[in-house]
Every structure is written in structure tokens, then in C-alpha cells.
TrEMBL record:
Species for this entry: Pseudozyma flocculosa PF-1
Name this polypeptide is given: Ribosomal protein S2
Matches recorded under SUPFAM superfamilies: Ribosomal protein S2
HAMAP family reported for this sequence: Ribosomal_uS2_B (MF_00291_B)
Superkingdom per UniProt: Eukaryota
Recorded GO MF terms: structural constituent of ribosome
Annotated keywords: Ribonucleoprotein, Ribosomal protein
Bias kind Polar residues: ranges: 1-10, 31-46
Length: 424
């Protein structure tokens, strides 16, 4: 026997379901949609004509009173016809003024756009530098800047060498045995140079040699006969001025060093257009007895310039060369183990060496200025020691004058030694 609570629950649920069904049926009988014919243009919502019981009628009446009135009927055909006729009627009258067409693109000054791009790039690089990035503007290799503004030997880093592909050598089949100490390893049967322990110290040592030669007013001869090396060599010679010369022809002419008087004398005499025959004959005799030799040779492609290395060795002239893995480094005085087939590497090496020579020229000029100051000071003291008519004064002692000059020279030599020690 069921409990009273269960019986009451079933009765409540049953009455609720019957009430919900009654409400849904009343709402369905209240509003029905009439199906229009094909020719009818009206979609109307009309109240249902069916009758219900008295209780359902009362509920429907109360719902109809509470519901909002139905929207007015709309003739769709008439609305479409009016929409089609509207453009025609507008064309009959005065057409309204149409707005000006928008420009397809905005004219921007190219210089301003380029300056804005540079500013954004510089800002981005500065922000990356503050985040601890090791690849900054100061340490990155920029090929378009290396030729006109190369780095010095002190500013040179491994990033510059790696970016210029200086570490790439040739295949192991062409590797010279003397290059084994300079090889870091191999990759895909290609020798890789040790930039940190071989290339970088060798390049800095060669730069120091060029600096000392330029400081002593020596002649530096650049030899580069491969296509593409002429631009960097010309910039280096322009940077060195009267101390830099170059050979950028297709090949080295044998005898330029060992047989210089006969090879170079006609060219020098031909440039002397204002000289007469007598002067030319005397000059030819003088040129035949002179020896035109550079103080150091910088060879960029030693394989094609073997004659130049041989002549420099016979004339006891030091040589600096970029020696690839297929070149014997013992054939030159100062070997720079690097990739001589890369133009970037050649430009980097030539730029570093020319910068070192430029530093030597500035140092020599500074020493000459100091020597001139000392000479003027000594001349002023000698003039003060003489009388007004140019005669020596009564209290002038020649021994004192010689002693003062000797002391001045000693002080000057000591100053030069101190400057050299500070530079070293």
C-alpha cells in the first residue's frame, strides 16, 4: 500500500501536466496562420474560428486582452514595385552631387619614408641591445660599411670573421700539411680554420707590422689580381696616401722587383713630358742605378702571384698573405690563415691592414711635429744667446750651448722612447 506522501505527489504532478497541455492547446487554437494562394500577396495572421469549451474561451479572452495587437498587413508586391520605381524617378530629376572618389594611394616622400625605416630599425636594434643580445650594431658585420669605414685591429672580433666566412677552407684532399696547426676541424669534408687561435692573432700581428712600416715612412704594396678585389685595394691605397701602392692587373709582371730599373724607368720617363732630351738621358742613367723596392708586400691571392712571392723572397722583402688551406704558409713571412676566395674576407683583411697603416702615418706625423717644436725651441734659445747685431754676447759660452743642445736631444729621445712604450 502506497504512502499518503507518495499519493499526494503523484496527484500534484498529474494536475500540473494536464494544466500545461491545456495552455498549449489553447494557444494553438488562438492564433493560426492562413495558407495563402499563389496569387495572393498578403501574409496575414488571423484569429482562429474554432470554438472551445467555456473554460478555454475565458482563458483565450484573457490572453488576447493581455497580448499586444498584431502588426498591420504589408503588401510585399507593392513594396517591391515602389523600390524598383524609385531609381527611375530619381534619374528624371536632378541627380544629387556624388562625393569625390577616394584616392587609391597616399603620396609619401621617399626620403621621409627611408628615414622613418632607418629610425625604426635603429630603435629596434637599441632595444635588442638592452635585452642582452650579443648581436648589436657594434659587433655585427656590415659589408656596406667595411669598405669605407673598416674596423681596427683592436676592434676586430670573431663575429666579423665568422660573418665574412673567413673560417671556410678547401677540401681535405688539397689540405697542406703545414696548415694542420691552423685547422679547427672538418665539416662535410671541408677544412675549418681556427679563428680564435690562428686567424685573429695572425691578422693582428700583420696589422702591427704594417703600422710599424708606415710609421717609418715605408712603402706598402698591395697585390690583388682577382676580379672584385680592385675596389677594396684602391680604397686602402687612398687611405695610405703616398705610402700605399697597388697591383690590380690581370697578372703579376715578372721582374717588377728584381728588374725594376729597366721595367719602371720607361714608364716614369714617359710621365715626365716637360723634360728635355738631356734631362731625360741623365734621368735614365739615374733610374737605371736605383732600386725600386717596397718595404712590405700584401698579397691577397698567393696562388696566382707565386712570382711576386719568389721575387720578394730574393730581395729580402717581408710578405703578408692570406693563406687558404691549399697554400703553404711557409712560403710567406706573415701568413693569415683565412678564406682567400671570399671577397668579404679580402675586404675585411685589407681594411684592417690599411687602418693600421693609417695609424702609423698619424703617429709619424705626430712625432715630426714634436721634433719641429724641439727644433724651434732650440733655435729660439740660440737666438737669445746672441747679441742684437747677430754677434755672440759677452757671457755666451760655446760649451754651454753644446751642453744645452745635447740635453735637449736626450730629453727628446727619452720622450720618443716613452711614447713607443706607451703605444706598445
Amino acid at each position: 500500500m502506497a504512502s499518503p506522501v507518495a499519493t499526494t505527489s503523484r496527484a500534484v504532478l498529474g494536475s500540473g501536466l494536464r494544466a500545461s497541455r491545456q495552455r498549449s492547446s489553447d494557444a494553438g487554437r488562438l492564433f493560426t496562420t492562413s495558407t495563402p494562394n499563389r496569387n495572393d500577396s498578403l501574409w496575414t495572421i488571423t484569429p482562429s474560428s474554432s470554438s472551445s469549451s467555456s473554460s478555454a474561451g475565458a482563458a483565450a479572452a484573457s490572453s488576447a486582452a493581455a497580448a499586444p495587437p498584431p502588426p498591420p498587413a504589408v503588401d510585399l508586391k507593392a513594396a517591391f514595385a515602389a523600390a524598383r520605381a524609385a531609381p527611375a524617378s530619381a534619374q528624371d530629376g536632378a541627380s544629387p552631387a556624388s562625393p569625390a572618389p577616394a584616392p587609391s594611394h597616399i603620396e609619401v616622400d621617399p626620403k621621409l619614408a627611408q628615414a622613418e625605416r632607418r629610425r625604426m630599425s635603429r630603435t629596434m636594434m637599441d632595444q635588442l641591445a638592452t635585452l642582452g643580445s650579443t648581436q648589436t650594431r657594434a659587433s655585427s658585420f656590415r659589408p656596406h660599411k667595411m669598405r669605407l669605414n673598416p674596423v681596427t685591429a683592436q676592434e676586430l672580433t670573431l663575429n666579423h670573421l665568422v660573418a665574412s666566412t673567413a673560417q671556410m677552407g678547401h677540401s681535405l684532399s688539397s689540405l697542406k700539411a703545414a696548415n694542420q696547426p691552423f685547422i679547427y676541424g672538418t665539416r662535410h669534408d671541408v677544412a675549418i680554420f681556427d679563428l680564435e687561435r690562428a686567424t685573429l692573432p695572425a691578422l693582428r700581428r700583420a696589422a702591427h707590422v704594417v703600422r710599424e712600416v708606415a710609421e717609418r715612412d715605408g712603402v706598402i704594396l698591395f697585390v690583388g689580381t682577382r676580379p672584385g678585389q680592385q675596389a677594396s685595394v684602391l680604397q686602402a691605397c687612398k687611405r695610405l696616401g703616398s705610402n700605399g701602392f697597388h697591383v690590380t692587373a690581370e697578372r703579376w709582371m715578372p721582374g717588377v722587383i728584381t728588374n725594376a730599373p729597366k721595367l719602371l724607368a720607361p714608364a716614369i720617363l714617359a710621365s715626365m713630358g716637360d723634360a728635355d732630351e738631356a734631362t731625360a738621358s741623365i734621368g735614365s742613367n739615374k733610374l737605371a742605378t736605383q732600386h725600386y723596392q717596397p718595404d712590405v708586400l700584401v698579397i691577397l691571392n698567393p696562388i696566382e702571384n707565386a712570382f711576386a712571392i719568389r721575387e720578394a723572397t730574393q730581395a729580402n722583402i717581408p710578405t703578408i698573405a692570406i693563406t687558404d688551406s691549399d697554400v703553404d704558409p711557409r712560403s710567406v713571412t706573415y701568413a693569415i690563415p683565412a678564406n682567400d676566395d671570399s671577397l668579404r674576407t679580402v675586404e675585411l683583411v685589407v681594411g684592417v691592414l690599411s687602418k693600421a697603416g693609417e695609424e702609423g702615418i698619424r703617429s709619424r706625423k705626430k712625432k715630426l711635429d714634436q721634433a719641429e717644436k724641439v727644433a724651434r725651441r732650440m733655435a729660439r734659445r740660440l737666438n737669445n744667446a746672441r747679441g742684437p747685431a747677430g754677434e755672440e754676447s759677452t757671457n755666451f759660452d760655446p760649451r754651454t750651448r753644446r751642453a744645452s743642445m745635447a740635453d735637449e736631444l736626450k730629453r727628446y729621445r727619452k720622450q720618443l722612447d716613452d711614447n713607443e712604450e706607451a703605444a706598445a
